[in-house]
Design goal:
Mean pLDDT: 77
Largest sheet: 2 strands, antiparallel
Distance between the termini: 67 Å
Radius of gyration: 29 Å
Organism: Brassica campestris
Strand content: 5-15%
Subcellular location: Nucleus
Pfam family, one: ALOG_dom
Protein name: ALOG domain-containing protein
GO molecular function, one term: DNA binding
Number of helices: 5
Length: 187
């Protein structure tokens, strides 16, 4: 066998082995999420095929998933609104956590591309309204728990001061190369 034929044979064996191997945890989750979304589209009134799905339908799906959530989100009228660790129970609804929704949308976006859903611009999970909705959910959940999700202000790191001391030739063997002396002021 020449080199090219051997490489092609190895590639074919690797392809067969990878197709028979179980999918990764991420791929399996992505598949389950996609199946749930397709089932949701079929069961809604009126049923909808995925090719006609828009960002509004994705938001509708995310709101539907809230009923299965495990994250307590306090309403504004709740006495524990804005408290990260409430001292007692309340009747506020359970919702999907923002992080879960965000990762779900990421997996669904990838799944849509995997099934050949069309141009990336037609991906309903990549629609601007979906990212706006996710941002609103993040802010609302942050306020309800008293956790701000604003941009972090980064402190500028202290820059080390560098001074150059040129060899003045006092030893006669100076090569004229400057010696770098670094003095950092640490606070």
């Amino acid at each position: 066998m020449d080199g090219e034929t051997a490489a092609a044979a190895k590639k074919a064996v690797a392809t067969v082995a990878s197709s028979t191997a179980s999918p990764s945890r991420y791929e399996a989750q992505k598949r389950r999420d996609w199946d749930t979304f397709v089932k949701y589209l079929k069961n809604r009134e009126p049923p909808l095929c995925q090719c006609r799905c828009s960002g509004a339908h994705v938001i509708e799906f995310l709101k539907y998933l809230d009923q299965f959530g495990k994250t307590k989100v306090h309403v504004a009228a709740c006495p524990f609104f804005g408290e990260p660790n409430p001292p007692a129970q309340c009747t506020c609804p359970l919702r999907q956590a923002w992080g879960s929704l965000d990762s779900l949308v990421g997996r669904q976006r990838a799944a849509f591309e995997d099934i050949g859903g069309g141009l990336p611009e037609s991906n309903p999970f990549a629609a601007k309204v979906v990212s706006i909705y996710l941002k609103e959910v993040r802010e609302a959940q942050g306020k309800a728990r008293g956790i701000p999700h604003g941009k972090k202000k980064w402190k500028r790191p202290r820059v080390a001061k560098a001074t150059l001391n040129a060899d003045d030739g006092g030893g006669g063997r100076g090569s004229g190369v400057a010696a770098l002396v670094v003095s950092a002021t640490m606070v």
